[in-house]
Amino acid sequence: MTAHHAKPSNRGSLVDLVLRARELSIFVALVLLVVITTLVNPRFLSAQGVEDIFLNASILALLAVGQTLVVITRNIDLSVGSVIGLVAFVVGDFVSGTDHGVLVAVLLGVAIGAGCGLVNGLLVSFLQVPALVVTLGTLYVVQGVNHYIAHGRQINAAEVPSAILGLGNGDILGIPYLPLITVAVMLLVGYYLRAYPSGREFYAIGSSPEAARLAGVPIRRRVLAAYVAGGVLAGLAGVLWLARFGTVIADPAKGWELRVVAAVVVGGVAIVGGVGSVYGAALGALLITTIGSVLVVLKINSFWQEAIIGLLLLLAISADRVVALRVAQVLRKRNAAARTSPAPAAGEREPVNGVSR
To answer: What residue ranges are annotated as transmembrane (predicted)?
Structure first.
């Protein structure tokens, strides 16, 4: 009788372990940050303070979920901030002074975001233009279109239908709508990526595009889908921005591309693709938002928020590189040990529980 010994964990299990450790470390850092700030200023954890943090983090976390889909395929989208601005202004201009409801606003915003994502996706996936070049270009193009449409005008909250403003400031059972929407989207996307074969193909593309191609994965279609989905979520975020703030100028989310990428990478999504989760990205968004609130409470110059975000981005990318090298080293040692282990002699069976049979 031959015993079947358990095989050592493969690269996937090692990466999953690292991801859980990263997400846990982010959560611990978040708790420590909140506890220390509360000790300095007890009003930080007031009901209004906590609500403001979650409301402000909701839009960033929603963008981070969409960016995760793109980044795990070894790409990036730097245009999300300008897409938010375009959607918020165009939708606000369309509904101002009318009785249009939430559905019309959401459909229009999602359509604009999907169109922007489609352009990015077609250029990156089918024309093979580097994602950094494409999305940096569309960032400025969308900004230009937004300023042309706005022409110095401003959308005032008094002109926006109350139903839309209620989406950004209302609640159900005391819980604001915005965090509920973000959590629902995060859970749906997270479940899709892990439970469906087409979702797991996003990770396969990021891990090894050549291997994914040999396995029959439709790489171009998946990359295109990632960009369109990211655009859809950016469009939804633009509508939520309008609903949250009411008053909108041209390009209100300028510079948010850095925050979104930082949230994703800090949350454990490898910038080289193939690794990460939407849950970690959302945690990263919450951490970055909390840091901003802490600086305000402690009356520290807002310049330091951008500096801290940049530092976190550098540390996260460096950590990813160190972890990748460590995982590769461990796998090489295991493979070498497996090749050098002596095979049982002919006619001799493997021992079971230390006893030869």
So the answer is: 24-41, 53-72, 78-95, 102-127, 175-193, 223-244, 256-275, 282-301, 307-324
Residue with tokens 């990036």: 76
| pLDDT tens-digit map of 205-235 | 998 999 999 999 999 999 999 999 999 999 9
Alpha-carbon distance of 240 to 218, in angstroms, equals: 33
- What are the sequence ranges of the domains in the chain? 11-332
**Region at 321 (left for phi over 0; alpha for psi -120 to 50; beta for the rest):** alpha
Name residue 248's beta-bridge partners.
155
| CATH no., domain 11-332 | 1.10.3470
In whole angstroms, give the CA distance from residue 281 to residue 279: 5
Q: What's the maximum distance between 2 C-alpha atoms anywhere in the chain?
A: 88
**Mean pLDDT over all residues of the chain?**
85
d(CA 36, CA 53): 16
Residues 262, 284 contacting (CB under 8 angstroms) = yes
If DSSP codes are grouped into helix, strand and coil, which group holds residue 67?
helix
8 A C-beta contact, residue 299 and residue 43: no
Structure tokens at 225: 């889908």
